[in-house]
Amino acid sequence: GSQQYRRILRDDFTYRLGLSATPIRPHDEEGTEFVLDYFGNIVYELGLERAIKLGILCEYEYYVYVVTLTDAENEEYQRLTKKIIKLLRSGNDKVSGSINRLAIKRSRIIKSANDKITILDRIIQDHPLTKGMIYCYPTRQADIVCHRLSQQGIRVARFTSQEKEQRPQILNDFSQGRLDALVAVKCLDEGVNIPAAREAIILASDTSERQFIQRRGRILRKAPGKDGATLIDILVVPPIGDEQVKLISSEVKRIKHFAKTASNKASVITKLGDELSHYGI
Length: 281
Hints:
By secondary structure, the chain is of the alpha/beta class. The chain is built from ten helices and six strands, in the order H-H-E-H-H-H-E-H-E-H-E-E-H-E-H-H. It has a six-stranded parallel β-sheet with strand order 1-6-5-2-4-3, sandwiched between helices. Helix 8 links the parallel strand 5 (199-202) and strand 6. Helix 3 packs antiparallel against helix 4. The two termini are 37 Å apart.
């Protein structure tokens, strides 16, 4: 649906078939409409739950770790929120660009929360990496993660835009078992086929449903000797006592989506219910 790729959707193709896990483009009604019109709308859907039951995809267990913003991070988050609210209430149609910039800046606080790096050690202890993917933001976070994993004897490689020429070799080493983990910044979201991947740790994620569906999809493909996958997520919450729970609500949307088709759904809901009861969720 993007302007760049529309050029290949020519009118001289008599027969057309579109296959996608994410046909609806978030925040792009025009692009979505273009694709659906071109292919003649959605004619068949195979849901993830049914695909797992049919044995097309493997089952996965889902684990959520909760981390708290530091006081400084929370103060900055609230400061940006107040600025956004003020602009929204101004009624000025020309402030949308400023609001978007502030929203992006605020989202970076969640993506790069300090305690995410701290809890990574516990995650690795609970779920040792054999063929894992770790999604980070920004590149600095990826560098820190690579360093910490290497110190623990884990064979790891970065998979970012900076390693473009080395990517084929990195993927081959990972598939052949010469690497235990790949640390990525967006580059492993789509267009990469590594059925052997077993674990995914989402240290940082956009709110885009398209993105987190694609990230889960990387580890659900069947492979010889692979009996299941593990998806690990991190929920960022404000300090206890802070009444602002909108931050949690936006993150919970992703968690509900992942938990719905996980083989350990009941335990995920029970555990999170206890941990989030302080916030009235």
